[in-house]
Amino acid sequence: MSLKQQIDADIKSAMLEKRKDDLKALRAIKSMILLAETEKGNTEGVSEDAEMKLLIKAVKQRRDSAQIYKEQNREDLYAIEMAEVEVIEKYLPKQLSEEEVKAELQKIIAQVGATGPQDMGKVMGAATKALAGKADGKTISTLVKQLLTA
């Protein structure tokens, strides 16, 4: 079952069970997928990789908004954004812990042959491909800096 079909099925069940918060997040995901499908030059639909990137982008947008709401003491809006993050994360692969990301990055650094901070670009290129959907880009970047300067 494709992500789009899964989202459609989940929208139906959320409507029947009257879960308004879930419904809002699911409709946002469906909207993003439909926009990607109708993009100029797109003829064969959206690949799994592209769907994963859409979901990651949606989570990042909501987390950024939630952070702003928290800074402005808008707990009501913060709670809404975080509820949507939880719904969207159900469709992403399990996120790795910081220790697991570190272990993966050490393997990647050894493969690439990185010796210092000047090799960060090489490591980041390989790491973002290897850990796509499994770890946040900001976390990867921070850990790569730590490992290369240590």
TrEMBL record:
<dbReference type="InterPro" id="IPR019004">
    <property type="entry name" value="YqeY/Aim41"/>
</dbReference>
<dbReference type="InterPro" id="IPR042184">
    <property type="entry name" value="YqeY/Aim41_N"/>
</dbReference>
<dbReference type="GO" id="GO:0016740">
    <property type="term" value="F:transferase activity"/>
</dbReference>
<dbReference type="InterPro" id="IPR003789">
    <property type="entry name" value="Asn/Gln_tRNA_amidoTrase-B-like"/>
</dbReference>
<dbReference type="InterPro" id="IPR023168">
    <property type="entry name" value="GatB_Yqey_C_2"/>
</dbReference>
<protein>
    <submittedName>
        <fullName>Glutamyl-tRNA amidotransferase</fullName>
    </submittedName>
</protein>
<dbReference type="GO" id="GO:0016884">
    <property type="term" value="F:carbon-nitrogen ligase activity, with glutamine as amido-N-donor"/>
</dbReference>
<dbReference type="Pfam" id="PF09424">
    <property type="entry name" value="YqeY"/>
</dbReference>
<keyword id="KW-0808">Transferase</keyword>
